[in-house]
Design goal:
Layout: H1 27-37, E1 43-47, E2 50-54, E3 58-61, H2 63-70, H3 74-86, E4 90-95, E5 98-103, H4 106-109, H5 126-152, H6 174-182, H7 187-204, H8 211-226, H9 237-251, H10 257-260
Helix pairs in contact: 2-3, 6-8
């Protein structure tokens, strides 16, 4: 923030017909949009049915949603957010496609001085004006206290575990493989899924705090979007029956021709003699 101070802008500016030209937002407008979308007090938003708790100065949105609002592509949004992070203007954390963005120094951007009502209030509403000023004074004290705390100590990340891109040498470990197996996936399908998982997140440059959790989500989505049948590579009752039959056939000795033809009462030995 410069030394020239700040000014208040109505959030409704983004919906005003006079300012809509259908063109993509500039980088300056994109930054103002982020500040205007940030929560001014603690609140909870539901994203894809999941509750997200937001602190003052935080907003939550998917890259796809931001791109649609800005008229940008998702890769361009991702690059711009990376620039803002490197400049110390925001902190962004992504989980399961949902990004929580924290506006750094949000309280400084909200340090706005409003005109008093003393010169405009009539005698009839003087008491109401006094009450409004009292409320504003309390708000000013709270804001000043928050700014003082922010000036004395650098901002600390709200989440202890740092998010990072997928390691170049990432591969399924035993924990991830066992999870997929428990969900019914066959080994061939698991290897196909792991390759798609790695290619997807490396291409998007996804930041993740727990890649094991991301893999579990990927397995769940595979079941959710592709069903439970054989095309998904999951085991069915029919698969289990075929496996059992294959094991039996591995020990089975050929029956006499007369027995196979139904002309004798011989016995087929399924297991080799001890």
């Amino acid at each position: 923030m410069s030394e020239r101070g700040v000014f208040a802008v109505d959030r409704g500016i983004w919906d005003h017909d006079l300012f809509f030209d259908g063109k993509p937002l500039s980088r300056r407008e994109a930054w103002l949009w982020l500040v205007s979308e940030a929560a001014w007090k603690e609140r909870t938003r539901r994203i894809v049915g999941r509750p997200i708790d937001l602190q003052r100065g935080e907003l939550v949105a998917s890259l796809r949603f931001i791109a649609s609002k800005w008229g940008w592509s998702e890769p361009r949004v991702r690059r711009f957010l990376a620039v803002l992070i490197s400049e110390g203007m925001i902190d962004a954390q992504t989980d399961a496609g949902v990004t929580v963005i924290t506006i750094c120094k949000y309280d400084e951007y909200q340090r706005v001085s409003l005109p008093t009502d003393a010169t405009r209030a009539s005698d009839d509403d003087a008491a109401a004006a006094q009450q409004r000023r009292k409320t504003e004074d309390i708000k000013t004290i709270e804001d000043t206290s928050l700014r003082s705390v922010g000036a004395l100590a650098p901002a600390k990340p709200k989440r202890a575990k740092a998010r990072a891109q997928m390691p170049d040498d990432w591969s399924l470990d035993q924990q991830d493989f066992d999870h997929a197996t428990e969900r019914g996936f066959l080994p061939t399908k698991i290897h196909e899924m792991s390759a798609a998982f790695a290619n997807h997140h490396r291409a998007k440059g996804t930041l993740m705090a727990d890649w094991h959790a991301a893999w579990r989500t990927w397995c769940g989505n595979e079941i959710k979007f592709h069903g439970k049948g054989q095309p998904n590579g999951r085991r069915t009752v029919h698969d289990a029956a075929n496996d059992l039959l294959a094991k039996i056939n591995a020990f089975d000795e050929p029956a006499p021709g007369s027995l196979r033809g139904g002309e004798s009462e011989g016995t087929v030995r399924l297991l080799p003699p001890r």
